[in-house]
Amino acid sequence: MGKKRSYENRKVQKEVKEVDGYQCMVCGKITQQAHGHHLIPYSEGGEADLQNMITFCPECHRKYHSGELNIDIDRF
Fold first, then answer.
1. Number of alpha carbons in the 13 Å side-chain half-sphere of residue 28
2. Contact, 60 vs 69, CB < 8 A?
3. Average pLDDT over the chain, rounded to whole?
């Protein structure tokens, strides 16, 4: 997560949360503190578009990045 996010990237992260109704796509929790997450990592060239984004609650996002949660991106 070392690369600084562009305005466009931040805009799409906000947009995916709004489209998903701030609902985590893993556990179903709805929270205004939801995070927009790249399916193909931004650091690996993942695009800043809705097809490459998913909404996570903060807890599921932390679990994903700590390796406690595996996501099958083909599901999305």
1. 0
2. yes
3. 89
Whether 53 and 38 have beta carbons less than 8 Å apart is answered as yes
1 band by pLDDT with thresholds 50, 70 and 90: very low
Given a cut of 90, whether residue 66 has pLDDT beyond it is yes
Region for residue 40 given its phi and psi (left: phi exceeds 0; alpha: psi -120 to 50; beta: otherwise): beta
pLDDT at 32 over 80: yes
Query: Do residues 64 and 41 touch, judged by C-beta distance below 8 A?
Result: no
**How many angstroms separate the CA atoms of 38 and 56, rounded?**
10
Tokens of 7: 């305005």
Tokens of 62: 């932390």
Mean of pLDDT values over 49-68: 94
C-alpha radius of gyration, the chain, whole number:
11
